[in-house]
Amino acid sequence: MIRRHAHRNNLIWASGAGAAPSPAATVGDARQASPRKLGGWEPAPAAPRTEDTVSRPSVQDTAPLAPSRERRPPHRARRHVPGTVTQPHPLTNRSTNEQLRTYDQGVRAAFDQIVPTLKQISALHCEPDFTQRAQQLAQRELGFELPNGILDDAWIAGLDLRRLYAWSVFETYRRMADDFFARDPLRGRETTTFDTFLQSCGFHLMDITPCADGRLAHAISYVLRLPISAVRRKSYAGTLFDVEDTVEKWVEVEHQRFREGRPNTADTATRYLKVVMYHFSSLDPQHQGCAAHGSDDAQAARAGLERLHHFRQAIENSFCCGASVALLLIGLDTDTDAIRVHLPDERGEMDLNQSVDAQALYDQTHNLTPEAARQGILEAVCAAAPDTADEGMVRLVARLVENNLSQIEYVRTLQGGGYQDAGHAERFMAVGIGFEEIQLRNLTYFAYLHTVEEGAPDLDVGCHIFDGLNVRHGLPIPVVVRFDYHGRVPGARARAVERVHRLDRALADRFRTRVEQGLLHRMLVVRDCDAGAGLEVISTSVMPPPAGEH
Predict the structure, then answer these.
(1) What's the pLDDT at 549?
(2) Which helix (H) or strand (E) holds 303?
(3) How many of the other CB atoms lie within 10 Å of CB of 544?
(4) GO terms for molecular function, please (predicted)?
(5) Active-site entry in 213, 337, 357, 458
(6) Fold exhibited by the domain 113-185+424-540
């Protein structure tokens, strides 16, 4: 079992510092990277706008995919090897899969080149023309130059590789984010089709909380194949989202419906849909599950469901006229990216031992025509749904399962049968508010918060993860502190800048020992969401303020 990404297997060079509920009763449950381009971040082609499905001869007399509701023993996922999928599933989008892989590989190649490049630079630091040669190497391999001050001071006390590493991670992230906002490579702004479908199912907003674990950062664009601008995503450790914050968002959305008629008018019979996505590991369930719940899959699911109930109760207790919300619970196998969906009844109650298993449905519908496969999925979802389940919810879940089939095939065929980084392999922590551009698996650990005090559990889990990934090898934890703001609001930028500074001071105080040892660096950024522009870097701990400034 490979538990960390290969690029960190040997990082001692860096410095002198020492180092879900069981799948029982799930519906349908039957028992090489492309060459790296020089110059750092290379924009990938944009994802296609049209479907690319495979047609095949009709299959007559297809048996319905009726589920069994009896309990079954847990099973371990099979690791599919390259070549085992001889033909695509009839409902998968092959061209989109290729485009998503190209984008993923381009971003990862830029981050993965940091360590090899710094190793080469480290070997040069005693050369008389070190600064010039180091900058040439960095420009060629990473696509940007390094801070001259750090390079020029290398002759005094050696090369500060911790600062160079943090700077390189920050600059690579900044370039990636700016490219994302400029090009929209995942076509996340194309929301009309999904918005129309969502409202036809009886919902006016889909608000998703995945776990903050980096292995779920791609939940929207990859796992569920949804346009990022059409859904709200806010990640929390263990999916334990802030109920009060979500109530405030509900109020904002309902007020917008009443005042502006967006996304629809307040008299339209649709509801706010809150979704929680917990996760589990089918290949190593005892060690690679949710860290916030001690890799206890059942506890992760129970905690997510409990938080959903708290949100529903808060809305019903606080507002009159039958105000309520719709709830949905999804489990994600981080080894295969297959989802299992627990369908609610009319009151939002769900049976954690009953779900729709997308991976089993992929196998069972693989040889059908597109029409028969789609009908089989719908029948399986209907069979798993409680008798009082909402028809619109059933249609939405069937669509999510169908979308997930493309991601299952993506992992099976384009990721060599399974992810090599089965465990954590995040490159940096994202702290604050924003980060919608982070749509790639295992790139970032999220901690959405306004203050360190309210987000302490998420921060502590993140630092624990990075202690194993970076600190044990002498590398620092790179933390991007960010607050987005609305430029149309007077004084919003100044307040966002003050927030990142305040959060930075609190981080430095909470993790003082790591900061003093150079094992935690921060980059402070803000972004005007109204302008649609890139990031504005306020400051970074890598480069202290010039002499005389405070």
Answers:
(1) 53
(2) helix 297-318
(3) 10
(4) carbonate dehydratase activity; metal ion binding
(5) 213
(6) 60s Ribosomal Protein L30; Chain: A; (3.30.1330)
